[in-house]
Write a structure and sequence with these properties.
The complex is a heterodimer.
Chain A lengths: L4 H7 L4 H14 L4 H12 L9 E6 L5 H9 L4 H4 L5 E5 L7 H14 L4 E6 L2 E2 L8 E2 L2 E2 H10 L1 E7 H6 L12 E2 L1 H4 L5 E4 L6 H14 L12 H4 L3 H4 L3 H6 L9 H4 L18 H4 L43 H28 L6 H5 L1
Helix pairs in contact in A: 2-3, 3-10
Chain B lengths: L2 H33 L13 H11 L8 H5 L1 H20 L1 H11 L8 H24 L1 H6 L2 H22 L5 H18 L7 H19 L4
Classes of the chains: A alpha/beta, B mainly alpha.
């Protein structure tokens, strides 16, 4: 990129006004004061020559590249993608032209040149099993790479549910002993942006916040930006009125489903899932899972894969009852045994009963 | 354990254990109670005992003709009926609960609108608080109350309260409150067969028995 971001945007047909509107939207999405929109616009628009752009290193671990796909594709060629022009993405295996030694060189150069200042983005979980042998890059295990790169980072963004909470690799029985970034790194500010994949605007929002204020936005206790993960899908769902009225789709193709009734009974995890899908939506605000007729999977929550089945209502048992018949049998046996004991006691009492005679009373 | 793991535990392992103990306890107690038996009453029945038994089962659910107990102890009578009917509506006619029952037994039926059930929950909570306060305030009731009375009130009250708080998103995040709600229901399931709460099962049998015995003696009630 040459010159300030605002010029690059202009060349790509994005007007100054559109850019300011975008920054204002971003600020309001993140529940920041109106002045923050302006500050963001100024900070990003002014991002000048390449050497001064904040360095971002993106490490991929046990992941499916879905997070990268989500962020790079869903908004291209819209303005969100261009936010990347405000940063210097110095290492991103999927996107970078370099490979092998050149890529490694770029990584180490970025680390050296921006010691203590670069932002580390991680997608994918870190396998601890077999000394980390399950996933290696350039002969180094993910664990080693993470520790090495995290050392000089100003902050870490755990991108996607795998990096944030372990995600699918951590699903039972977790063969690689996968853990999240925050399980490994304890001494750096870490922000989790979970989702499978996360919403692009959440990523750009956090980046914009970091670029503007040099810090991470306010987080909830799971390390997620509160602005985007402050409310449940259920609370903001446009199908919520049907839940309140007790109108539920029973199958994916019944009348209720066609009328857009609540998907709770079809296993929607919206009530326990904190994310911004219902408000921000996907693909440039086109739609989102519930709008397209499928319940929320709860992908931005820890261990969503082991939450007891995607198509089971939240109030249904997570697993089939295993002890029920054994319990009935045991209860019946206990009941019969106690009855016999009681009857034996009764018979004994009857047998031991002494008749009181007149003579006894006169004693 | 984070709240999602807590929720999954109560929906899985916890429920498994609770339902197991519940079924075991119910079977055990029912068999034990009904196998105790009674000495055969050798006297000739004054009235048809069975008919009196059936009659009593239903008669006892209606207010007496002279409104005796309704007047003497209105709080117990009205409050008691209110929260029992409320509990039945909440447990059996709230859509997520029907889904739970369907998950466990395969049976399902239509539910009521959530807002109506919400109203019923508020009334039920209020009625339960009122009967508790009455129990505390009336010296005789307080004197007659044992630990079991306070304890069973609590284990019945907590699922209603936590469920209502969960639906209303009060006090704690929904996920945590829902998990706590399910846990309190599981505690109730475990406790039910072994306390006076077992009247949920023995109620009709006892009424029949009382009616039948009285009918046999010539006092059909």
């Amino acid at each position: 990129m040459q010159g300030p971001l605002i010029d690059t945007l202009a060349r790509q047909g994005v007007t100054r006004r559109t850019f300011f509107k975008y920054c204002a939207t971003l600020a309001s999405l993140m529940a920041l004061p109106p002045s923050a929109g302006r500050a963001m616009a100024e900070a990003m628009a002014a991002a000048p020559a390449a050497a001064k752009r904040p360095s971002v290193i993106w490490l991929p671990f046990q992941e499916c590249t879905g997070c990268t796909e989500s962020i790079t594709r869903s908004h291209s060629p819209t303005i969100e993608g261009l936010i990347f022009d405000a940063i210097s993405l110095d290492y991103q295996e999927t996107l970078m032209a370099a490979a092998g030694h050149q890529a490694e060189e770029a990584l180490h150069k970025a680390m050296k040149d921006n010691e203590g200042k670069y932002l580390l983005v991680v997608d994918g979980s870190v396998p601890l099993g077999l000394d980390g042998a399950y996933s290696c890059i350039a002969g180094k295990s993910n664990l080693e790479a993470l520790k090495e790169v995290a050392k000089g980072a100003a902050a870490i963004v755990a991108m996607g549910s795998c990096a944030a909470f372990g995600g699918i690799p951590k699903a039972k029985p977790n063969p690689t002993n996968a853990v999240s970034v925050s399980d490994v790194i304890k001494d750096k500010p870490i922000i989790n942006i979970p989702g499978c994949p996360p919403i692009p605007v959440v990523m750009t929002g956090v980046l914009a916040h970091f670029l503007t204020f040099g810090s991470l936005p306010e987080m909830d206790k799971l390390g997620r930006p509160k602005a985007f993960y402050g409310e449940t899908i259920h609370d903001r769902c446009y199908r919520r009125p049907f839940y309140d009225q007790g109108k539920f789709a029973k199958t994916f193709d019944d009348e209720g489903a066609r009328k857009g009734w609540c998907l709770f009974e079809l296993g929607c995890k919206g009530p326990v899932t904190y994310n911004a899908c219902a408000t921000v939506k996907w693909n440039g605000g086109t739609s989102w899972p519930v709008e397209s007729g499928h319940g929320c999977l709860g992908c931005s929550e820890p261990d969503f894969w082991d939450g007891g089945g995607f198509y089971k209502a939240l109030s249904m048992p997570a697993n089939p009852l295993k002890m029920a018949s054994a319990a009935v049998a045991a209860g019946a046996v206990a009941g019969v045994a106690v009855s016999f004991a009681n009857r034996a006691k009764k018979s004994a009492a009857k047998a031991g009963h002494e008749t009181t005679t007149l003579a006894d009373l006169e004693k | 354990m984070n709240e999602m793991q807590f929720l999954t535990w109560v929906r899985g392992t916890g429920l498994n254990i609770a339902v197991g103990i519940f079924l075991l306890g119910v079977l055990w107690r029912l068999i034990e109670i009904y196998s105790l038996g009674r000495k055969k009453d050798l006297s000739a029945p004054r009235q048809v005992a069975g008919a009196s038994g059936w009659n009593t089962m239903f008669r006892r659910s209606l207010p007496p003709k002279d409104m005796g107990m309704v007047k003497r102890s209105p709080v117990s009578y009205i409050g008691g009926y209110t929260f029992h009917i409320g509990l039945a509506i909440i447990v059996f006619l709230f859509a997520p609960h029907i889904k739970t029952i369907q998950g466990l037994t395969g049976l399902s039926w239509p539910g009521l609108p959530s807002q109506f059930v919400d109203l019923v929950a508020v009334v039920t909570i209020a009625a339960m608080v009122v009967v508790l306060v009455d129990r505390i305030n009336k010296p005789v009731k307080r004197y007659l109350s044992t630990f079991e009375d306070w304890f069973t009130w609590l284990v019945t009250f907590l699922p209603v309260l936590t469920g209502w708080l969960a639906v209303r998103h009060l006090l704690l995040p929904y996920t945590t409150m829902l998990a706590i709600h399910i846990l309190t229901v599981e505690i109730l399931l475990v406790v039910l067969p072994f306390t006076k709460l077992f009247h949920a099962f023995t109620l009709w049998g006892s009424r029949y028995y009382n009616g039948a015995v009285n009918g046999h003696k010539g006092v059909a009630v």
